[in-house]
Here is the input.
Amino acid sequence: MLELKRTLDAKGHGVLEMPSGTGKTISLLSLIVAYQKAYPLEVTKLIYCSRTVPEIEKVVEELRKLMEFYTKETGEKNNFLALALSSRKNLCIHPEVSSLRFGKEVDGKCHSLTASYIRAQHHSNPSQPVCRFYEEFDAVGRQVPIPSGIYNLDDLKDFGRKKGWCPYYLARYSILHANIVVYSYHYLLDPKIADLVSKELAKKSVVVFDEAHNIDNVCIDSMSVNITRRTLDRCQTNVDTLQNTIQRIKETDAAKLREEYRRLVEGLKEANVARETDIYLSNPVLPDEVLQEAIPGSIRTAEHFVGFLKRFLEYLKARLRIHHVVQESSPQFLKDIYEKVCIDRKPLRFCAERLRSLLRTLEIADIADFSPITLISHFATLVSTYSKGFTIIIEPFEDKTPTIANPVLHFSCMDPSIAIKPVFERFQSVVITSGTLSPLDIYPRILDFRPVTMASFTMTLARTCLCPLIVGRGNDQVAMSSKFETREDFAVIRNYGNLLLEMSAIVPDGIVAFFTSYVYMENIVASWYEQGILENIQRNKLIFIETPDAAETSMALEKYQEACENGRGAILLSVARGKVSEGIDFVHHFGRAVIMFGVPYVYTQSRILKARLEYLRDQFQIRENDFLTFDAMRHAAQCVGRAIRGKTDYGLMIFADKRYARADKRGKLPRWIQEHISDGSLNLTIDETVQLSKHFLRQMAQPFRRVRPAPFFTRFS
Amino acid sequence: MDEEPERAKRWEGGYERTWEVLKEDESGSLKATVEDILFQAKRKRVFESHGQVRLGMMRHLYVVIDSSRTMEDQDLKPNRLTSTLKLMEFFVEEYFDQNPIIGNVLLFEINTFFYICFDAGNPKKHVAALKKAVGSTCLGEPSLYNALNIAMQTLKHMPGHTSREILIIFSSLTTCDPANIYELIKTLKELKIRVSVIGLSAEVRVCTILTRETGGSYNVILDESHFKELLMLHVKPPPASSSSECSLIRMGFPQHIIASVSDQDAKPSFSMSHLESVDEGPGLTLGGYYCPQCRAKYTELPVECKVCGLTLVSAPHLARSFHHLFPLDAFQESPLEEHTGDRFCQACQGELKDKSVFTCPACSSVFCTECDLFIHDTLHCCPACIHTQGAS
Here is the structure.
């Protein structure tokens, strides 16, 4: 609280690590809301960014409780407007559109009903279908502001239904004057979406990134482009369609194209004016220089532009026709493209903007179909804009299948600060928070900002409800490690199996076991099966396995929870960095123990990673090893943190690798876990682990008496 | 227990950290901690006064003991099974001592749950059966569902004014059920059967729900002494639920009549309760308790008359159950230093040596720890109070 207040006072940025389940969300919300009430001019808006839709809903519920508390205590109704925003898929109430299953389809369909020219056509030709909810909203919704209150996604939908307004557009419009906005952090980080949704948000906002331990990867993903041969093929079709449409329009409505041309000559002046007044969140895809210039002449007319695209496409195709791995920087790429097909840097930079304008002019309804060509145009713009922080890697085949040609062009961003920079620059305070941010100092370094406060909080517990144990040896004293040299070792695999077997006999209900990768998990499980360990485990508990397939995994998860619920007990074998390790909580009996087999290092042979590591070393002076360990440990912490979701919860955390005992690994775990690792729980054998766990579980099973309400957090000094 | 199985060797047992309990005091001596541990052990029993609550005095209790694979575990010495059975013997005796009006203890095994069936009344038989079970091997997986189902089938028919209870000693952490256990829990709840569980290893979710739904208690043991304590908690009758019906019960108070050997008419006769069990000797006796209604003879009380169904008890039995309704208040504990009166315990007349003394709130007499325990566990009345009452 204190730290957060300091951050807000200083109008700076902060990094706060707070263990989950200790009221992180509510304490953030309550302070910022109080701040907003006290200094309505200093902080006008709170933007709370979370990761998934359920998390967003949770935040809104907390907020609702807070507001109810305010009303109860002060006796007056406050006029706060808070709302959640999500994609059209989650907010659409149009009967036909909302029945579609994929987000892209919904977006496309929605666009085909609400685009301006469609509606213009509707005026002349009433049989052209439009979305009546949008029409209604457009007609009256903007004049009347939405009544103050707390709206989650369902509330918005209900409100929309009642009024007959489109909830999605209503929400998007309302965030401009809402006091609190809760949405996914893609809306702020992904330049393509941020431009649409978030650019008009006030400068005096406080931005909170919750669960932000992966924020650098989100930044990188939002700026990276992968192009496969399939993408290019579909682009080709797109280009053909474009050409045909242009032909058609030229015959029927040449004036329209001329009008567009005129507009382009005038340049993007409008956009420029807007940026100078500093109202907008700057779009990293569309850098400042672009706005000051007009679209270059070579791509100004529609045909020329399509021809240009074709040339660019052919070039990319040629580049993908290779047999060895190529890695090059953006300037190299630009030089090459100039030499081969005479494409200059400048027109490339305008590619994205030009394409958007063209699509608008051509009145193409279904934007979804054109996603490949949009992707390519973004790539073109990015590659020509940034000379630093990006790398281009062309791989002729995947590492796993070196015989099957499947060329991929990775245009990968190595510097997460590029995507997040506008956020830091624009908003007055940005707070990054999560349960696992240790070591804290690395985030400011890789995201390139200067925080006012950095603090790690620990939990005040009424009882020691977590029990981290580091198992380093089997009963036969053979060291356990998922180190590359020993991971195939028979003794190591057998010891891992024994550990799981012993734990399955003494831990009630659910156990979640994490492996470092799918491949490793498959190997181990296969060899356990041969050794008969699986059979023994199954006498104690049922076994479920996470697979890369989402449907299968959610099925396994459902059955796992059922088995935990009715007392049979179950083990979920899953993979660090997988779906299970990130988004799913194992409260209470769903996760009484988490076993982490090995240290979850990333696949270090990947070229993208290598390039990134090199970049980090050159630019930020972060050593490769430091970053790898940091990355591995935050994932390990994330995995084991799944089990403890609150004070009444308890769980074992077993780190099964002797490398965890080393100071460099241990020191990178979050404070709230580190605190409970005593010297006595390092490098245990399986037997010792079993004894300690038994004791712990019995202790924890005793009725839990709340001694006194503990304060929120205590500062760990 | 004469043929106690050979104790497992210390090194065969698990890895323990016994030294962690001990802490040195300032002078580096362990004496203080050791004494403290001993004292704590003495005083562990928690007095939970019910106040004036209606208690279910007539109890039907099923005890279900898990006998799956996990009972072979050696964390209780020599293993869980033997330890449990030994404690059960103690429990059965205590149970009949404290709840003399008709009780029904059943032990049974289904799919590796013990299933030893008795009729009511006699603790000796239960103990004998328990002894027999010692040393039996434990195999397979337990099924909570089957155990509950069988217990329910029998308890269903018990009259509404008696309590229906199931106590499960659950060692395993898993249950292999043939059907959905939540359905069964619902049925149990409807039938007002109270299920309590004592877990031997850790908290299992399904037991938490089971006990919460049916109004029982769920505890997990820490060690053997804690186990014993938890068992003893079940000796006391639970508060009756307000919804259970109450009714007046006819009871017979038979007199013990012994015909003198010199009497010519006296013929030795069989006790009615011995008719079924063959293995307990001839059973021909001269004297016994005669049912006031039908003159059937019994050698032991309390019992339900086999002939006319009358409940036969003796007056002391009723009196013993009585104290549950009006429990003796807990004595006030105060440190010895603050105590100003004479330095002798009112009960045993020994010198007060322990750290704290106990004062009866009614007559403000002082007692030592030992006597305090004895008074509350066995006597159920304050000797000093009775003394003053008698005098006045």
Summary: The two ends of chain B are 48 Å apart (CA to CA). Chain B has ten helices and 17 strands. Confidence is low (pLDDT under 50) at residues 1-8, 44-52, 108-120 of chain B.
